[in-house]
Each structure stands twice: as C-alpha cells, then as structure tokens.
Design goal:
alpha/beta; 6 helices; Rossmann fold; six-stranded mixed beta sheet
Amino acid sequence: MLLLRHASAGERLSPPALDRERPLDRVGRSDAKRLPEAFAGHRIERIVASPHARCLQTVLPLAAATGLEIELHEELVPDASIRNTLALLDELSATSLVCTHREVIERLLQGQVRCEKGAAWLLERRDDGWVPVAYLPSPTSLERTRGRAAVA
C-alpha cells in the first residue's frame, strides 16, 4: 500500500472548516502533476483520500492518468481517530494508494518516521500492523537531489 502525504498547500488556515478547503500551492500542484510518473512502477488499483481539498487535488492527476475514481473518506482527516483509520486501511488491498495528512501518518506509524509533503511510504501489512518498508520522496525533492548530484 502507498501512504501518500498531500502535496504542499502553504500554511494552515483557521478555523478548521476553512482549512479543509485549503488548495495546493505552486509546488504542490507541480508535485501532483508528476505523481503519475513517480508511481509508474507501482500497481495502483484504488485511490482513497481525505476529503480535504489539498488531498483531493494531490491525487486528481493520478486518478486521471489511471482512470480510477477517487474515494473520499473522513477516516483520513487530520483529527480522525486511529481506530477508524486502521479499520479503513484493513479493508484496503495492497494495491491501494491512500492520500492523507501528516497527523494521520504520524499516528499510524507511531511517530517513527517523517514524511514530507508530496512524499509516500510503501507499507506492508504484518502481524503487528502496518510497517513502512520504503520511502518515496516527493517529485520536487527528487529533482533537488538530482540537481545537487549533477553539480557535485
């Protein structure tokens, strides 16, 4: 399963109802457009996302490229209970892509990993729950890394 943090969307807005509608910024839109290429080597048969605008906008290009519908779930919003989030993940197959928020990723992985905006963790289901096995940096982060390597 791919666990994707939404792409860059600027600063948090207040109140929370307004923050739900916060769109991707320029960097976020660029990363979102490049996700189909970034995930080309992964079999994705289902796209599930938080209903917040930034999550939906992050996966729209991927959905268009794959022909998949985006399923929106409240179990993936920042303040969703871990029990509800885990119940949803347990219903999904290993070929699902889940787009959510930093807070959810931190709760799911017990704060043991970091995930930049627009990046993803490849998760495996094991006896003790979901385990991160590979980190996939955001397209922007990969571009910066390649640029530094070319200069060196």
